[in-house]
What we know:
Pfam families: DUF4062
Distance between the termini: 57 Å
Number of helices: 10
Protein name: DUF4062 domain-containing protein
Strand order of the largest sheet: 2-1-3-4-5
Largest sheet: 5 strands, parallel
Helix content: 40-55%
Radius of gyration: 20 Å
CATH topology of the largest domain: Rossmann fold
Amino acid sequence: MAQSVFISSTPFDLALHRKTIMDMLSQPQSGLPPLSVTMALPETALDERLRLVRNAMVYVVVLGMVRGNTETAGTRSLVQLEFEEAQQYSVPTLIYLMDEDEHLVLPKHVDTGAAAQQLADWKAALSQKQHVRFFHSAADLAARLQNDLHLLLKPVLTETAPAPSATPAAPASQAATSAAPAPAASAPASGMKARRYTLTPPRFAFFKEKVSPLLEQKETPVSDTVLQEALEFILAGNSMAAASGLNRGSTLGLEDAIELVRKMELVIIDTVQRHQVKK
Length: 279
């Protein structure tokens, strides 16, 4: 019997992404049990949505730049309610956020005002407490999901697995990184000065406090000098230079550094927006 993978997303702006995932998972996946994709339709009642989430083998949430429909007389979106149900029932969860620097998006598929702020708040909270991945296209999302499912789910034919060798196997996280080559580091060209916003000591201390939970997740020491440089590049909109600096100044691989920078950007954007509202 096929196992259900529940895909939670807004249906119209991410229609291509949903179809791409459906097409990918409809093909036999080597080493995985048969999978069936479940997606709620706009007219699906909330009770039925939550039942499907509880019964899923894996819960997948994909967030673009639209909050989507909300609960009756509430501010939480249906996608957020589905996510909370998956967490309450300990359904294995994979989280994917649209890379807002790289992903092409139509203006009509971008929320503004209160909806945009609520979505930004939730993304920032997810980035601080959960392991998230960023995707830059529908094809990239499907490829990342396929790889993550192979890491998450045990192979079906365990009895045919090769005998263990004398050399210890690489950790799953390392295997995932080596499966697809990371993009080459792009340090600033010789003679060119990368954009950078200078932080005073009090401002650095303020932003350091905001991103500290992200650094604790990585369990990788990052010196104040390296962190300040990264924050200054991020505030200047130079995310690649920030990731390159983190990669050179710590034990983070480039792919992990890029992922950390994306999370830091979400937290910083949310912090700046909140500060502007209070003024």
